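Quick one - inputs below.
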Amino acid sequence: DQQVKQNSPSLSVQEGRISILNCDYTNSMFDYFLWYKKYPAEGPTFLISISSIKDKNEDGRFTVFLNKSAKHLSLHIVPSQPGDSAVYFCAARGNNNDMRFGAGTRLTVKP
Amino acid sequence: EAGVAQSPRYKIIEKRQSVAFWCNPISGHATLYWYQQILGQGPKLLIQFQNNGVVDDSQLPKDRFSAERLKGVDSTLKIQPAKLEDSAVYLCASSLGVNTYTQYFGPGTRLTVL
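Output:
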């Protein structure tokens, strides 16, 4: 069951521009949403999170927006840097603290 | 602070063989998770421990997969016998507690079943 979906397998942006990564979910009981970043041959690392009671959370260049009515969240990276090139996973926490992950979006930031 | 350690990093076996993976979580983290990540997909939770007790193993194929967390620290995940479709990266993660949503991942073990 794909409760968390990332419909764009890849995204390419120019350095300095904005990167927008999208994520959709189906379960309205999710209470926390997280973004993880993954480099090759490494495990995912936590990037930013948002509670279901908020609609925006900002941390430096990274901002996550949550639209509960649309069951949609997005990660904005401004400005994008070449070091941001990685796979980004959207994740959502369910009732039993189980985390559901999307399939990931590979971001490439071109110098 | 040392991160989550996993070994081995890579393993190649033939189908029907057995394999075991080891994980050492971050010191003080009570909750430990094992995930399976098949190529092109996101991580899928296999089992979750709180100290040495199982919280959730609903997605663990119990006919061939087993896991234990003796003494509430290290954990071992075993597959016996392996199938071709078990080829994946097996990720271990830990968190402070079951109500803490931030999980810290190890580098993973890439398993190839031939």
